[in-house]
Design brief:
five-stranded antiparallel beta sheet, Aminopeptidase, alpha/beta, six-stranded mixed beta sheet, 2 domains, 15 helices, Alpha-Beta Plaits
Length: 476
C-alpha cells in the first residue's frame, strides 16, 4: 500500500464517521478537563455571578480552535446574561441537532461548604465545585467534543448547534427562551438533546441504569405568608405568625399529592423493574395493573427517587420571618417549590396548596420568575411528551450497552429544564446525560457538590460516540 493511499484511507476513515467508537485521545481529555476547570471557577450565580464571562471564555476556546466568526454568536438581554451559540457545519443533508446546556448555577455560600464552591478542587477521585453535577460538566464536554470533531475533520450529515445559556436555575433572563424569541434561526433544529436531563445512575461508581429524559415536570414557586400585628416579645400570643405558618407547613407535610402514572412513567417502572431488587421490582409491577396499587406506591415512595416520579411534590425551600430580636413576628413567609406532574396547571396546584393550608388568615400566592407575586397563577401545563425518536433511542441504547452493558430506559424527569421551551417551540427535546452519578450522592443544588473524575471522562466518551452517530445519520 502506498504512503499516499494510506493517508487518503486514514482521512476517509475519520471524515465519514468510521471511527465512531474511538475513545477521546489524551489531548481531548486534557482539553475537556481544562474547560471543566475554567467553567467551575467562573461564578455564574444570579446574585453575584456573570454568565457572560463563562460564555466569552468558551467563545475564545472555540475561536482558537478555528471556528469561524460567522458560526459563533454571543448575545443576550444584558451584559451579565449573554448566551453563546456555536454551529458545527455538516453537509446539510438533514436538519440540525441542537444541544442546550445552561452555564448558570445555583447559589452557593462559602460558609456552607468544606471547599470554596467556585474553586475546582480535586480530592480522592472527585472534583468539587458548584456546577460539577449541574451542569457545567456537560457544557465542557459539548465544547470539547466540537473541538475534537474539528481536529479530526469530521464532516457530519447535519449541522450540530450548541447553545450555552443563562438563567435556567433562576433569574429573569432565561437564555433558551430569549434565543427562541429573538434569534430562532440560530437555534432552529430538527430535535434537541439536553444534558441537564436524563441520567446515568451508579452504585459505588458502577453504572446500573441509563435514562432518556422523555418527559418532565413543571416548575413553579409559591409563597405562603402569615401576618400579625406583632408586639412586645415579653407578651407572647398564641396567634404568633410563625406558629400559624408552622402549622400550615405541617399540614402540607402530612398531605402529599396523590399518586399518578402516565405512559412514560408506566414504561419506566415496567423496564426498571428488571434492574431492581426483587421486593422493589414486585412493587413496580404492581403499579402497572388496571388500577394503581396504593400500598405498593406507598412503599416505593419511601425512596425519594420513586416518590418524585409518582406524584406532584411541593416542599418549603426558603423561610423568612421577624424583624427584631425583642418583637413578636409581624410577618412569616415560606417559599414553596413545586414540581408538577404533567397534566396539572400552576393555578390548579396553587388552589390545592390553599386547600391543604386550610387557613383563611394565610395567603397563598404564585411567585413568577421575576420574583413578582400574584393571587393567581398561569393555567400553563407541561407540554405533552414528544414521540421518542427511534434513531435517538437506538443510538443511546447501543452506546450504553457497549460502555456499561445496561439498556436505556425512557423516564419522566422529576425536575424541570430548559427543554420546556424547546418542546413548546415544536422541537422534540430529549434529556441525554452520559455522566454517571451515584444514587446516594446526588449533590446538585446542595453542599459540597462533586463529580467522579472517571465519570466525567466516561461522559466525554459517551457524548462523542452518540453525537458522531446521530450527526452521521446512523443509529446502529
Amino acid at each position: 500500500m502506498s504512503r499516499l493511499f494510506a493517508a487518503a484511507l486514514a482521512l476517509l476513515f475519520v471524515t465519514t464517521g468510521s471511527a465512531k467508537d474511538a475513545a477521546p485521545d489524551a489531548a481531548t481529555r486534557k482539553l475537556a478537563f481544562d474547560l471543566f476547570r475554567e467553567l467551575i471557577e467562573i461564578d455564574t450565580t444570579d446574585s453575584t455571578g456573570d454568565v457572560s464571562a463563562a460564555a466569552r471564555a468558551m467563545e475564545r476556546r472555540l475561536r482558537d480552535a478555528g471556528f469561524a466568526e460567522a458560526d459563533l454568536h454571543l448575545a443576550g438581554p444584558n451584559e451579565r446574561k449573554q448566551n453563546l451559540v456555536v454551529r458545527y457545519r455538516g453537509r446539510g443533508t438533514a436538519r440540525p441537532i441542537l444541544l442546550i446546556c445552561h452555564l448558570d448555577v445555583v447559589e452557593a455560600r462559602r460558609e456552607d461548604w468544606s471547599t470554596d464552591p467556585f474553586r475546582f478542587v480535586e480530592r480522592d477521585g472527585y472534583v468539587y465545585g458548584r456546577g460539577t453535577q449541574d451542569v457545567k460538566s456537560g457544557c465542557a464536554i459539548l465544547v470539547a467534543t466540537l473541538i475534537r470533531f474539528r481536529h479530526e475533520r469530521f464532516v457530519p450529515a447535519r449541522d450540530l448547534i450548541v447553545a450555552l445559556t443563562a438563567d435556567e436555575e433562576g433569574g429573569s433572563a432565561n437564555g433558551v427562551d430569549w434565543l427562541l424569541r429573538h434569534h430562532r434561526d440560530w437555534v432552529d433544529a430538527e430535535y434537541v438533546l439536553n444534558p441537564d436531563s436524563g441520567g446515568v445512575d451508579a452504585v459505588d461508581g458502577r453504572v446500573v441504569s441509563v435514562q432518556l429524559g422523555a418527559s418532565e415536570k413543571l416548575y413553579a414557586d409559591y409563597l405562603i405568608e402569615a401576618t400579625n400585628p406583632g408586639g412586645h416579645s415579653s407578651l407572647p400570643r398564641p396567634d404568633n405568625a410563625i406558629y400559624e405558618l408552622a402549622d400550615a407547613l405541617e399540614r402540607l407535610r402530612q398531605a402529599p399529592f396523590p399518586f399518578e402514572l402516565n405512559p412514560v412513567t408506566r414504561a419506566f417502572f415496567a423496564r426498571d423493574a428488571a434492574l431492581e431488587p426483587a421486593e422493589v421490582a414486585a412493587d413496580m409491577r404492581a403499579l402497572l395493573g388496571p388500577a394503581l396499587d396504593e400500598q405498593a406506591a406507598q412503599r416505593l415512595a419511601r425512596d425519594a427517587r420513586f416518590n418524585s416520579i409518582l406524584r406532584t411534590t411541593c416542599v418549603p425551600t426558603r423561610l423568612e420571618a421577624g424583624h427584631a430580636n425583642n418583637a413578636l413576628l409581624q410577618r412569616a413567609q415560606a417559599l414553596i417549590n413545586c414540581r408538577i406532574f404533567p397534566g396539572h396547571s400552576k393555578e390548579e396546584i396553587r388552589r390545592e396548596l390553599a386547600r391543604i393550608v386550610a387557613d383563611a388568615r394565610l395567603r397563598v400566592q404564585y411567585v413568577a420568575t421575576d420574583g413578582s407575586r400574584h393571587d393567581s397563577a398561569p393555567e400553563e401545563q407541561s407540554p405533552a411528551p414528544p414521540p421518542i425518536r427511534a434513531d435517538v433511542l437506538g443510538t443511546l441504547d447501543r452506546v450504553a450497552r457497549e460502555m456499561w452493558r445496561v439498556p436505556v430506559i425512557a423516564e419522566m424527569e422529576t425536575g424541570a429544564s430548559d427543554s420546556i421551551y424547546t418542546n413548546a417551540a415544536g422541537m422534540p427535546s430529549y434529556g441525554v446525560s452520559g455522566i454517571a452519578i451515584d444514587r446516594d450522592d446526588v449533590r446538585a443544588h446542595g453542599r459540597d457538590e462533586r463529580l467522579r473524575v472517571a465519570a466525567f471522562y466516561a461522559g466525554l466518551d459517551f457524548y462523542g460516540r452518540v453525537l458522531r452517530a446521530l450527526a452521521s445519520g446512523r443509529s446502529d
